[in-house]
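COURSE: Structural Biology Practicum
ASSIGNMENT: Worksheet 4, Part C
STUDENT ID: 0417
INSTRUCTIONS: Below are two proteins. For each, the amino acid sequence is given first, followed by its structure token string. Answer the questions at the end about the second protein only.

PROTEIN I
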Amino acid sequence: MSNLDRRPSARELGGLEGTAAGPVLDLLPGKEVLLGESTRVRRLLPTLGRRLVGAWAFVDHYGPDDIAATSGMQVAPHPHTGLQTVSWLLEGEIHHLDSLGSDAVIRPGELALMTAGHGIAHSEQSPAVHPRFLHGAQLWVALPDAAREATPAFAHHRDLPGFSSDGLTATVLMGSLGGATSPGTAHTPLVGADLDLAAGADVVLPLEPDFEYALLASSGEASVEDAPLDRGAMLYLGTGRRTVRLRATEAVRLLLLGGAPFEERIVMWWNFVGRTGEEIAEFAERWNAEDERFGAVVGYDGERLPAPPLPPVSLKARGRVR
């Protein structure tokens, strides 16, 4: 999915300063952003107070939206470098096309994992005939230096592992949790898991103390270590936790994101992840020139998204938090 902000700010992310040295419960404020022609999302990362959780660098949560009388999600071809996109649907369908020739319809409970690496382009659309509701999350994972120039790839995993316990049904998108390991390829130690809690559930979830974690409430309201977490909000948990207690008085869906703190410093602007401002400027120039680095999305009926003008100011190192 694209960052469609026409005046995106450039950010330097990464490094261990700003990583919580122990457990915390910090509520991360999101902001509403218009995505494409009609889809509004809540952007939780990057946001005021935090720019990364492990290697997770970007989190958009959208819906549930009634799109019965609309065209739904319509995101034209756009590029990516140096990251992975992780698409997760709770309701609806998304048609994915990319410059590798991938053509897939993503449905709830399935993992769409695109590794941009050296460079890729893709589009995302609700099918012409689509379900009434659209609800999900779009996530980016920053690639470490050793993998950021990797050959682009797309994987569509329809069956994901998980486990059930005490009113919790967990599905593991990335990494490992509770003995279940995702088939998705990760390049840094991380985890992503959908947590479906039944009304009345009271669960203690095992965690890795070396990871930092955050929880997004996709639907419903939950209590996280006695702190309230409302729908559409994200709670940063810090590091040093071996467990976290989750309680729900109603049915709740949570998205758990975590990983080893990302030590490398990166620059993220628009839909690119690089290491310097000069590198980002080159990516934008080559995309607008229809350079072969990104290829072409065959089968999309419409124009590509142009890269917006670069900011007039030089990049400033701001680390993981601001």
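PROTEIN II
(use this one for the questions)
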Amino acid sequence: MIKLPFAYAGLYLHICTTIPKMILVTGATGFLGAEVARQLAENGQPLRCTKRKTSIIPALLSSYKNIEWVDADMLDIFALEDALQGVTQVYHAAALVSLKQADKEPMIRTNIAGTGNLVNLCTDHGIRMVHVSSIAAIGNTKPGQLITENHHLDVATERDGYAISKLESEMEVWRGIAEGLNAVIVNPSLIIGPNAGTLGSGQLFETVRRGLKFYTDGGAGFVDVQDVAKCMIALMNSGISEQRYIISAENWSYKDITTATAKAFNIPPPSKLARPWMMKLAWRGAALASFITRKPPAIDKIAALSSIQTRNFDNSKIKAAIGIEFKPIVKSIQEICERLSK
């Protein structure tokens, strides 16, 4: 065995411990995945991001030279294995999302199988993972109580395909953890931010901008996309494993969120309460219109029912874990409305 002089041995150790480790982000063309990739790239991290062949690289990531883009479908285990070469950390944000009833079963199968493939590869190669689940995978509690990480969704009674797919995907990660995977799970609430544009959560703000007349008698947790990414990166770089964390900044009623949005746009806020029977008519009408036009419904049954439910979340666990101070939601609303106004 060759022995190095002490000085050279010290230099060799320094080089080995300072070589940047490759990080993989799945779903980097999506709203949250793109923000995770942006923050990592901004810090100079060598980064590899997966995308579908038909996906477009987000504008906010197009200028970074330290991002390597690879085509890798989550169901293509060989492409995934190639993408994981040299990788030590994975942020798994990729997931299929659809409101179409016809997509329910394919979405469930795709999200579960894709996560299972990644879990198996990360377990085999000793790669640490932060998995993005959702509050959709967390159960309810009694009225007036905060929902915590200890509440679990009952898949036997759940009808929302997305919620089922996120719960079962999360179960794949827990299965991997039992087999030796080093992983942590995050369950973000409703993620908002200017880069959503008019898609996803951005639809709410664009709808208010166009003159929404009705509000619903429900509420939920909201969080800025930048804070979700910060939490994920902080958890990745911590020694924490085998835990799930609700990532939510504040609990808002839908009336208050639409009123604050209208105020930011300097327009009248919604003033009429959409009662439960009205929401039932709305989703049935949207279903009929969708059948006729062959386009996705403006609102489906699950979304209609969710809009009249109040689900408030406890964020004390993530605050205690990493000391995060969340951006005030009113500030996020202002930033979103300024972007949409342009």
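ANSWER KEY EXCERPT:
Q1: Residues 95-341 form a domain with the Rossmann fold fold (CATH 3.40.50.720).
Q2: The chain has twelve helices and twelve strands.
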